[in-house]
Give the backbone structure.
Amino acid sequence: MKMSGREGHRTVYALSQLLVLVGILVLCGLAWTGAAERGRAIARSYSVPVPRGFIILVDQKNRQIEQLRSKGGMVLVQIEKPSYENAFLASIVVVPDKIPRDINPQDKTACAKIAKTTADSLRGTVQTAEIVQLSDGEHCQYTARSQENTNRGATGTIFSTPEEVWVVTCNYDTRDTAAISACAQVVDGWNFE
């Protein structure tokens, strides 16, 4: 169950590049954001709750974000930056993924390997990697922390069916309990449509 091959590495690389881009757009304030919505955000084959204090990021001039949206993905961004020193806006990124068929993301060993591959690509360290029970079943979920900034954390959750795989990555300041709670709300409120 080794995660290898061009496809797996390209997917992880593309995910890491998108997460870096979202971070830059949010930090620089260059992104145009859509109207705040209450309730649920509905995509091609799933829906998620939009947590209080978050909006859906829409940047029609940004090719990467528009490509993500055209594939059914989405980005939710925190509206107000926390007041902590050197804080940053949290984001929740939903991307389609292509995990090789011989990898079962609901297997604990596979989950740990996926977590390590993802953390390595983001220059982070895996904190946890486990199969968790959410409202719609068991899923691989891992947490990572940046090696460069100990206040920068991420939680990844993999939702899969035999036809498709989605990865929800929450990026947050580890001191920001509201952002961590928003992440939990999104992953626990995930529904395949």
User: Anything to note?
Assistant: Residues 33 and 57 are 5 Å apart (CA to CA).
